[in-house]
Design brief:
There is one protein chain. The chain has helices at about 10-35, 40-55, 60-75, 85-100, 100-120, 130-210, 215-245, 270-280, 300-320, 360-370, and strands spanning about 5, 10, 285-290, 325-330, 335-340, 375-380, 385-390. It is an alpha+beta fold. β3 (about 285-290), α9 (about 300-320) and β4 (about 325-330) form a beta-alpha-beta unit. α3 (about 60-75) packs antiparallel against α4 (about 85-100), α3 packs parallel to α5 and α4 packs parallel to α6 (about 130-210).
Length: about 400
């Protein structure tokens, strides 16, 4: 890393260059003194002009005014053009390039034009005054235009740097917003997973309380379901909260195998285990479907899994223990349909279980993200029907996916 050395609060390279410019003007003043052009007073004006030019970057407008005043003194006294008058052109260039306001450069140009006329009137020799005015005007105008061009280029580069900095800030803000949105989504997943699990645990715990004396074997099995479900919910909570606590995570190198994800994402291959848990909780589930499962994008796969989970949880809560549920997953060329229909003939629980997840609103939100449709409502037989249709992406292959029927 390169560190610029500072002198008087300015970079060393800039200070050295300005000192060299001032030294050049001072050399011209010394040469004028040796040539006996104006004597010591003219030499003093040249040295003062050289000293003022040292600050041409930090105070360009003030330096231009000081140099113009010294040049005016030279014209009034009648010394004529001297070698150190190059300092006037340097001051003009500096104010056009470095002044904070372009107005200062315009005023400096007007002042230089007046100086050109005054210098032309004192033009030595037999040539007419307008010849001197033309000569001085061309030189001064060229210097002013060069300064303006460099200023425009400098401001353009500064605007590009500002745009780049603004773009970096916007990307950083968008990145923070994306992280916040992802954390919100993970928090919603945490609520769904834990709430589903707690709903099953409450139903099973009530079953244990009422069957403990009459059917100890069934009570033990229900208690095992409560323990297994609680452990799974705790593991989900631990992993998801771990994601919420970590602000960022470095990506694995391209030549290194990616490790296990920070939080487990339920997949369709886990559907048999999910159905077994609900069967153990008291639902009678008949699972089937048509078509050949295909590989789905992770988000779409998670949505299908959550729709199945939410539908079975609602059946367990509202239809009750012992209700029959017909679950089907139909795979077509461009859609996958999830349908869960219960008969509503289960035994009611002692007290209603809390809502597992966001219910129909949560399912509708998930399905809507993928431009799908959700239909839910009572059936003529007294049960409840939930059907979700999700369009398959064009890139979905025809190979067998991880869905289990």
């Amino acid at each position: 890393m390169t560190v610029d050395r500072l002198i008087l609060g300015r970079p060393l390279r800039g200070v050295a260059f300005d000192a060299a410019v001032s030294g050049l003007v001072a050399v011209f003043a010394v040469l004028g003194l040796l040539a006996e052009q104006g004597g010591l007073p003219a030499f003093a004006v040249g040295v003062a002009m050289a000293a003022a030019l040292f600050f041409r970057r930090t105070h360009p407008s003030a330096v231009a005014v000081a140099v113009a005043a010294l040049a005016l003194v030279q014209v009034i006294v009648g010394w004529g053009p001297l070698g150190y008058d190059i300092g006037v052109l340097i001051a003009l260039y500096s104010v056009v390039k470095y002044a904070a306001r372009s107005r200062d450069g315009i005023l400096a140009g007007i002042g230089a034009a007046i100086g050109v006329l005054l210098s032309a009137l004192s033009w030595p020799g037999p040539s007419p005054w307008w010849a001197g005015a033309l000569y001085y005007g061309l030189v001064t105008g060229a210097v002013w235009l060069v300064g303006l061009n460099v200023r425009t280029r400098r401001l353009y580069v500064l605007s590009l740097e500002e745009r780049a900095a603004t773009a970096d800030r916007e990307r950083e803000a968008e990145s923070r917003a994306a992280v916040a949105e992802e954390r919100t989504r993970i928090a919603r997943e945490l609520h769904d997973v834990v709430a589903h699990s707690l709903a099953v645990m409450i139903v099973q715990a009530d079953g244990v309380r009422f069957t403990l004396d009459r059917d100890p074997a069934t009570a033990r099995e229900a208690a095992k379901v409560v323990a297994d479900t609680g452990r799974q919910a705790l593991e989900e909570m631990r992993r998801l909260v771990g994601v919420l606590r970590e602000p960022s995570r470095p990506e694995p190198a391209a030549d290194e195998p990616a490790g296990e994800p920070a939080h487990r994402r339920p997949a369709l291959v886990e559907l048999p285990a999910l159905l077994d848990r609900f069967r153990a909780a008291g639902l009678r589930i008949d699972c089937g479907g048509d078509g050949t499962p295909v590989a789905l994008p992770p988000g779409l796969e998670l949505t299908v899994y959550r729709v199945v989970q939410e539908s079975l949880t609602n059946a367990l809560k509202h239809a009750g223990v012992g209700a029959s549920v017909e679950l089907t997953l139909d795979w077509a060329a461009d859609t996958v349909a999830v349908r869960a229909v219960d008969d509503g003939r289960g035994r009611p629980v002692v007290r209603p279980a809390p809502s597992g997840g966001h219910g129909l609103v949560g399912m509708r939100e998930r399905v809507g993200v993928y431009d799908g449709s959700l239909a839910a409502g009572p059936t003529l037989a007294g049960g409840w029907r939930v059907e979700a249709r999700l369009p398959l992406p064009a890139a979905a292959g025809t190979e067998e996916g991880s869905a289990a029927a």
